[in-house]
Design goal:
310 residues; 10 strands; alpha+beta; 5 helices; nucleus; ubiquitin protein ligase activity; Herpes Virus-1; elongated; NOSIP; three-stranded antiparallel sheet; Ubox_domain
């Protein structure tokens, strides 16, 4: 394999190696991502777009109300579908058990009739021919044979009905083993934290708009660089500033406000309501799939075959 190395010197420099690796497609590719790759603190955790009607969970994950409601509804429908499949399986198991009981009962009857037939209740008369015995009780022998045939037919029909294969459906062929459906969980879990989420636990969020500059007055809120501020400290809220939601009112304040003002007497500085420690929910700041949450610089790396040069 020729990579196209044009170096004629004794030293293969790092710059030349990177250049040849990029041209050949060999080696691991690494790139640094800017802040544009990080989800903003006021964006929905599912759509990654700024929220128009934001709600927050108890763990601090922000969602668009319409999006998270649609997610919860979809998960509930999926759980109901799984539950119906599980109930169908239970009914099938109950039917199978009933058929097995009927087959076992039929086998017991057949065994009993066979045993009764072998038992001789009368003493044999040496002076009486076999022909006369058959003529003496033809109705009794005929009745026993009919009962025996009927019992055998019941067992055969039940067994055939149970083992009847279907060569048009792969899951019903004789060689196929049907997978068991486990009992589904009826709870809906948060897509970010993995903890149970309920509609009543979602808290409405109120952001305080930042005063617009002359250049930002004609722009929408989404297009502004500074969108929201803390209503107490007047600090601009961003991914670099830790912020929290006050559960009773839904107002978003900076964690500096929580440390300096709220934790002194646990009174909301905006509404004057009494607060508890659990009423302060810290918002989860931005993150992407490339790195952990809260980092300003991200690096993505794709591993590939390494070019070895001796």
């Amino acid at each position: 394999l020729q990579v196209g190395v044009t170096n004629t010197g004794a030293v293969y420099t790092y710059h030349e190696k990177q250049k040849d690796t990029k041209q050949s497609g060999w080696g691991s590719q690494q790139a640094r991502y800017s802040k544009d790759s990080i989800k903003d603190f006021d964006c929905c955790s599912l759509t990654l777009q700024p929220c128009k009607d934001p709600v927050v969970t108890k763990e601090g994950h922000l969602y668009e109300r319409e999006v998270i409601l649609e997610y919860i509804l979809h998960q509930k429908q999926a759980n109901n579908k799984k539950m119906k499949a599980y109930e169908k399986q239970l009914k099938k198991d109950e039917k199978t058990q009933t058929e097995e009981k009927e087959i076992a009962k039929g086998e017991v009857v057949t065994k009993f009739l066979t045993t009764e037939k072998a038992i001789k209740t009368k003493r044999e008369n040496p002076f009486k021919s076999e022909k006369s015995e058959d003529q003496a009780g033809p109705s009794c022998n005929k009745k026993n044979k009919e009962e025996e045939i009927k019992t055998m037919n019941i067992n055969t029909n039940a067994q055939e009905k149970k083992n009847l294969p279907s060569f048009w459906i792969p899951s019903l062929t004789p060689q196929a083993s049907q997978s068991r459906v486990e009992k589904p969980d009826s709870k809906v879990y948060c897509p970010m934290s993995g903890k149970p989420i309920k509609l009543k636990d979602l808290i409405s969020v109120k952001f305080t708009l930042a005063p617009a500059d002359e250049s930002d007055k004609q722009k929408s809120i989404v297009a502004r660089k500074q969108r929201y501020i803390c209503p107490v400290t007047r600090d601009v809220l961003s991914n670099t500033v830790r912020s929290a939601v006050l559960k009773p009112s839904g107002n978003v304040v900076s964690m500096e406000c929580v440390e300096k003002f709220i934790k002194k007497d646990w009174v909301c500085p905006i509404t004057g309501q009494k607060l508890k420690e659990k009423d302060v929910i810290e918002l989860k700041r931005g993150g992407t799939g490339y790195s952990s949450v809260g980092k300003d610089s991200l690096e993505g790396k794709a591993y590939g075959p390494t070019m070895m040069v001796s």
